[in-house]
């Protein structure tokens, strides 16, 4: 099933004339997931033809304004739009009362179910076809990063099923469950007629200093989206509890991640961003600087990056999870 990633904001604490506060919408199979909810997110969603009612999960990394100021507007809109689903909000335990105060302070008439889920290290959500994991990061306040991973599953080849004359639905079901079956005295396993499809992994790391556990957390990401608040100023990044591009690149290179998308930029780089982009993208394979309204589409056999200045296509191998740039 196709996945769509929509970049709603790429600035950090201060929005600029071209970059909104942080926010990323992911259509992950049938669920809509919003990563952070900065100021003006509703407008960004509208521009990209995404309704607030498409949101099933909101993942809040931490309680700084650039990551949560859009929440009152989202709540207000959902209350007036006959939102008939349960809204799941993953948030650090320490910020749950703050969330409740937002609802009370803005006198929002909540008429839908809200399921508050405490962020934690390890498995947080276990849906039928995907899971959400968290890691506690190192920032100036309690903060978490997340990844969403599709569950692996057995995929059967129709031609191979026909070759072995396997048409019985119960036998096919057993193969999909990883069980062996017997046909004309011959034992058949899923490996004879199919393969394990590797699940897509999308990792989101933001507002933290570099530490080694982030490498394992990002391990084998199909798409790694990470803050790069600073460029070639690692000492300043550490002082302000953020990461520099050089540190993010180390996570990417050491984690066997496939594509790195950079976001959450300090406004200090606004005027020189194009030169930074050119330098980084020319010297580093599979690393890109994001803009607001960029989109990424993940299909069965390809990944399309629809970036502001170019479109890039990757061949995707669902057996191994490897990618190969085609243009």
Automatic annotation (TrEMBL):
<keyword id="KW-0479">Metal-binding</keyword>
<keyword id="KW-0540">Nuclease</keyword>
<dbReference type="GO" id="GO:0042781">
    <property type="term" value="F:3'-tRNA processing endoribonuclease activity"/>
</dbReference>
<keyword id="KW-0378">Hydrolase</keyword>
<dbReference type="GO" id="GO:0008270">
    <property type="term" value="F:zinc ion binding"/>
</dbReference>
<feature type="binding site">
    <location>
        <position position="66"/>
    </location>
    <ligand>
        <name>Zn(2+) 2</name>
    </ligand>
</feature>
<keyword id="KW-0819">tRNA processing</keyword>
<feature type="active site" description="Proton acceptor">
    <location>
        <position position="66"/>
    </location>
</feature>
<comment type="subunit">
    <text>Homodimer.</text>
</comment>
<comment type="similarity">
    <text>Belongs to the RNase Z family.</text>
</comment>
<dbReference type="InterPro" id="IPR013471">
    <property type="entry name" value="RNase_Z/BN"/>
</dbReference>
<feature type="binding site">
    <location>
        <position position="264"/>
    </location>
    <ligand>
        <name>Zn(2+) 2</name>
    </ligand>
</feature>
<keyword id="KW-0862">Zinc</keyword>
<comment type="function">
    <text>Zinc phosphodiesterase, which displays some tRNA 3'-processing endonuclease activity. Probably involved in tRNA maturation, by removing a 3'-trailer from precursor tRNA.</text>
</comment>
<protein>
    <recommendedName>
        <fullName>Ribonuclease Z</fullName>
        <ecNumber>3.1.26.11</ecNumber>
    </recommendedName>
</protein>
<feature type="binding site">
    <location>
        <position position="67"/>
    </location>
    <ligand>
        <name>Zn(2+) 2</name>
    </ligand>
</feature>
<feature type="binding site">
    <location>
        <position position="64"/>
    </location>
    <ligand>
        <name>Zn(2+) 1</name>
    </ligand>
</feature>
<dbReference type="Pfam" id="PF23023">
    <property type="entry name" value="Anti-Pycsar_Apyc1"/>
</dbReference>
<feature type="binding site">
    <location>
        <position position="207"/>
    </location>
    <ligand>
        <name>Zn(2+) 2</name>
    </ligand>
</feature>
<feature type="binding site">
    <location>
        <position position="139"/>
    </location>
    <ligand>
        <name>Zn(2+) 1</name>
    </ligand>
</feature>
<keyword id="KW-0255">Endonuclease</keyword>
<feature type="binding site">
    <location>
        <position position="207"/>
    </location>
    <ligand>
        <name>Zn(2+) 1</name>
    </ligand>
</feature>
<dbReference type="InterPro" id="IPR036866">
    <property type="entry name" value="RibonucZ/Hydroxyglut_hydro"/>
</dbReference>
<feature type="binding site">
    <location>
        <position position="62"/>
    </location>
    <ligand>
        <name>Zn(2+) 1</name>
    </ligand>
</feature>
């Amino acid at each position: 099933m196709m996945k769509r990633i929509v970049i709603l904001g790429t600035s950090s604490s201060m929005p600029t004339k071209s970059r909104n506060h942080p926010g990323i919408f992911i259509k992950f199979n049938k669920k809509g997931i919003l990563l952070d909810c900065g100021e003006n997110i509703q407008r960004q969603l509208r521009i990209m033809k995404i309704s607030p009612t498409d949101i099933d999960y909101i993942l809040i990394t931490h309680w700084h304004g650039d990551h949560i100021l859009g929440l009152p507007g989202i709540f207000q809109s959902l209350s007036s739009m006959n939102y008939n689903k349960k809204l799941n909000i993953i948030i650090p335990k320490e910020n749950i009362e703050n969330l409740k105060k937002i609802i009370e302070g803005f006198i929002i008439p909540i008429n839908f179910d809200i399921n508050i889920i405490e962020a934690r290290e390890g498995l947080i959500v276990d849906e039928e076809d995907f899971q959400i994991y968290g890691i506690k990061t190192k920032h100036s306040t309690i903060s978490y990063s997340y990844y969403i991973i599709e569950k692996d599953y057995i995929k059967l080849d129709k031609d191979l099923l026909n070759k072995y004359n396997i048409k019985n639905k119960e036998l096919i079901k057993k193969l999909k469950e990883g069980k062996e079956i017997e046909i004309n005295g011959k034992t058949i396993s899923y490996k004879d007629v199919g393969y394990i499809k590797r699940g897509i992994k999308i990792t989101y790391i933001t507002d933290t200093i570099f530490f080694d556990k982030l490498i394992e957390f990002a391990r084998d990401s199909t798409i790694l989206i990470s803050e790069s608040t600073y460029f070639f100023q690692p000492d300043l990044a550490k002082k302000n509890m953020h990461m520099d591009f050089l540190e993010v690149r180390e996570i990417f290179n050491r984690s066997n991640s496939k594509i790195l998308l950079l976001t959450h930029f300090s406004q200090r780089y606004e005027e020189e961003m194009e030169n930074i982009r050119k330098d980084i993208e020319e010297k580093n394979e599979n690393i890109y600087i994001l803009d607001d309204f960029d989109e990424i589409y993940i299909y069965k056999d390809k990944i399309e990056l629809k970036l502001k200045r170019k479109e890039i296509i990757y061949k995707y191998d669902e057996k191994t999870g490897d990618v190969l740039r085609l243009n």
